[in-house]
Amino acid sequence: MKKDNQLQEHTSSYYAASVNHPTSYPMLAGNHSADICVVGGGFTGVATALTLAERGYSVALVEANRIGWGASGRNGGQIINGISGLDALSEKHGESITDMIWDIRWRGNDIIYERVKKYNIQCDLKQGFVETAVKPRHLEYLNEYFEERQKRNFPYKYEVWNKEKTQSSLGTDAYIGAFACYRDGHLHPLNLCIGEARAATQLGVKIFEQSPVIDIQHGQKPTVKTSSGGYIKSDAVLIAGNAYHTLDSKHLSNLVFPAGSYIIATEPLPEELANEINPLDVAVCDLNEVMDYYRLSADKRLLYGGQCNYSGRDPADITAYIKPRMLEVYPQLKNIKIDYEWGGKIGITVARKLAVGCINKNVFYCGGYSGHGVNATHIMGEIMADAISGTMEKFDLFANEKHLRIPGTRWMGNQIIALGMLYYRLKDLL
Ligand SMILES: Cc1cc2nc3c(=O)[nH]c(=O)nc-3n(C[C@H](O)[C@H](O)[C@H](O)COP(=O)(O)OP(=O)(O)OC[C@H]3O[C@@H](n4cnc5c(N)ncnc54)[C@H](O)[C@@H]3O)c2cc1C
Predict the structure, then answer these.
(1) For residue 49, what are the contacts with CB-CB under 8 A and spacing of at least 6?
(2) This prediction's pTM
(3) Is the Cβ atom of 372 under 6 angstroms away from ligand 1?
(4) Gap from CA of 22 to ligand 1 centroid (Å)
(5) Helix, strand or coil for residue 157?
(6) Atom in ligand 1 nearest the alpha carbon of residue 293
(7) Extended beta strands in 278-376, E state
(8) Which residues of 226-264 are buried (b: 16+ CB within 10 A; e: fewer)?
(9) 210 lines ligand 1 (CB under 6 A)
């Protein structure tokens, strides 16, 4: 079996099968230089590279496999405001930064909507995201979300749904209520990632694929070395490999752990059935700690996902793992065929807060979104670009957080993370 980061093509997902512009950037060979070198071609790397290029920097981006090969090209496509750990930051710093945190939580949405328009990226972007209550205690959250927006005169549509409205809007009696927000939404993530990479190259970013970085030589001008025999010397490096990276173990080992999440895609649903289960065409996520998430694709497949596995091992049969969960919510899909199944790795930290920082003043890192990241990666792309160009305020907010590093091997770390997850699963069952 092939290991991660060994020159792989995209996984066999619905997204890879419906990509608009397959990429084929050259492998890195020989000596190059740039103002900034970005390692990793997921949303974090691409969004940062594009922001820096928009500001006039020369940027080289090096990806081990293909643009969007990691979590960014495989995810549920749900644009969900916020960043894991943001509420804790808000509590820690108090009122002085409450407004800044509120703006940060939505910044990724704005960047995505602006870029899709500005660069004409075809990625099936839709507005509307619904969080569903499974347990009575979840109903409290829905009201909190509503009140928070009311307090801030939120200029987008948002609603609390009772059981009946939830049932008629989502074609299931699995939930006892829901909260809908139309500033969040959903899209085809691989087409967004590739579209942003194309926009970056139009602004001069040099992208290299199938070029795993195997070493970073630190110094005044850090140099990145790839297994394809290339070197890039730059003023600053960003490590954006998230759950898939293994670089700079001296500083970064046992900080971010891979957690598996898995998705199945049905065959395109008959129009009547698609209208029965999701007439508003919104993204849906339940409020369990170990949540299920789903939405319709542009061609009306149900993409149904679950965040399941913290052990570091993928299930042998993803459909057998996820389909029963889908049928619990939508028994009417019993005879519908599953066309695609795939999984990917989310980067998770022990305290579920971002792993952000800088080594030797010029090698930056950002990852460990610990859950959703479509929006969060775009927030951090801007914050990392700010930091690399010398504006540190928001970067420091995240970088000053202390992290618990699990001693020992990555295997041991995964076991401890898996144990923690067992606790969350039990909490969902109560
Ligand atoms: C199945 C699944 C469903 C998800 N659903 C959602 C969702 O609906 N909504 C949401 O907001 N978030 C979701 N997420 C989370 C979200 O996808 C991630 O948080 C986000 O994409 C992280 O982006 P990234 O760029 O940091 O990492 P990645 O996208 O994983 O990119 C890292 C890249 O770095 C490359 N790389 C690693 N090491 C090296 C190296 N040494 N040299 C060169 N390149 C290297 C990898 O090949 C990879 O392409 C989901 C994740 C998964 C796996």
Answers:
(1) 36, 38, 59, 61, 197, 200, 205
(2) 0.95
(3) yes
(4) 18
(5) coil
(6) 8
(7) 283-286, 292-296, 302-309, 338-348, 355-359, 363-367
(8) bbbebbbbbbbbbbbbbbbbebbeeebbbbbbbbbbbbb
(9) no
CA angle 46, 219, 212 (to 5 degrees): 40
CA of 372 to the centre of ligand 1 (A): 10
- According to DSSP, the β-strands at 283-286 and 223-226 are unpaired
Atom of ligand 1 minimally distant from the CA of 226 = 42
Query: What sign results for the dihedral spanned by CA atoms 179, 182, 183, 189?
Result: positive
* Distance between CA atoms of residues 57 and 34, nearest Å: 8
**From the CA of 163, how far away is ligand 1's center (Å)?**
35
Q: How far away, in angstroms, is 70 Cα from ligand 1 center? A: 4
For residue 224, how far is the Cα from the chain centroid? 25
Per the structure block, which two tokens stand in for 327? 């049928």
With cut-offs at 50, 70 and 90, classify the pLDDT of residue 265. very high
CB–CB of 290/430 below 8 Å? no
Cα-to-centroid distance, 222 and ligand 1 (Å): 24
**207 C-alpha to ligand 1 centroid (Å):** 17
195-199, 303-307, 368-372: which is most confident: 195-199
Given a cut of 70, whether residue 425 has pLDDT beyond it is: no
Which residue has the least CA distance to atom 8 on ligand 1? Answer: 76
Give the closest residue to 295 by CA, choosing from 269, 321, 316, 314: 269
Taking Cα atoms as reference points, which of 425, 363, 401 lies closest to residue 83? 401
Q: Determine if ligand 1 sits within 6 Å of the CB of residue 381.
A: no
| Residues 151-166: tens digit of each pLDDT | 999 999 999 999 999 9
Backbone φ and ψ for 344, nearest 5 degrees, come out as -160, 175
- 14 CB under 6 A from ligand 1? no
Confidence of residue 35 (pLDDT cuts 50, 70, 90): very high
Residue nearest to atom 18 of ligand 1 (CA): 373
* Helix residue spans in 125-270 (DSSP H): 136-151, 163-170, 189-202, 249-252
The pLDDT value given to residue 2:
45
- CA atoms of 430 and 419, how far apart (whole Å): 17
